[in-house]
Amino acid sequence: MATSEDDKDNSYKKIKCTIHPNKKIKLLCSDCNLMPCCIECILDGEHISHKYRKLESVDFSLINSKFKNDICPKIKEKIENNKIILKESYNKFHEIQSQFYNNNNLIKNEIDKIRETISNIETDFQNELKETFDNNKIINTKITSSINQDNELLTNIENNNNNNNNNNNNNNNNNNNNNSSNCIDANETIKRYQQLLILINNNKKNSNKLKEYNNQVITFENSTLDEIKNYLKLIYSFKNNDNNDNKSNNEFDNDGD
């Protein structure tokens, strides 16, 4: 016939661990206010080197007394502590949320400044390139216009010269040359001679003007760009702005047995 001790032993064998539901409670930790423990609780390390008592070796009235007199009165305290923690958590998260939006606005504003600086640098580059290109366009226009005018004048001189040569040949054949025509020929020759000298000199000017072209090529110093990128990474830093000490009591007092 089973005794009350046997019934107690069998009842204790059915108690499952809250932390490890697949394991049964075997021991009570003497160093942790007779905390019921399973094998896994001990192996997890929280109760290493603590003293233990077998569950069935402890009078239930002792556990019941601790439960009613020591632990239950702390339930209300724990609930109040939880309310305090919950309120602190809400306030802290609200502060973090506000700081999150502030951080994003700050990032946007500062990055916008960097973008504006880069945009200004880009504009300066483009303006310098355009200024040089416009100067090259002016040089090209001047050379083209000058050569077209020179070619037109050269063609006229060449045509007039050919016509005069033909007329001179005809006059020589007819023996009708006179001093008046010779004077006219001399005047035309001197005029054309002057024009040709001017054109020859102008041709030299056009040749020299070719040297005024500026075929501008832009290059970037990759090493400098890498340095700039690295420096940009140093313009910000993250830090924990939480300087408040947690004054809440979150644990039950673990009095020895």
Automatic annotation (TrEMBL):
This is B box-type domain-containing protein. Pfam families: zf-B_box. GO terms for molecular function: zinc ion binding. InterPro entries: FNIP_repeat, Znf_B-box. Coiled coil: none annotated. Residues 14-55 form the B box-type domain. SUPFAM superfamilies: B-box zinc-binding domain (SSF57845). It comes from Dictyostelium discoideum. Residues 159-180 have a biased composition (Low complexity). Residues 158-180 are annotated as: Disordered.
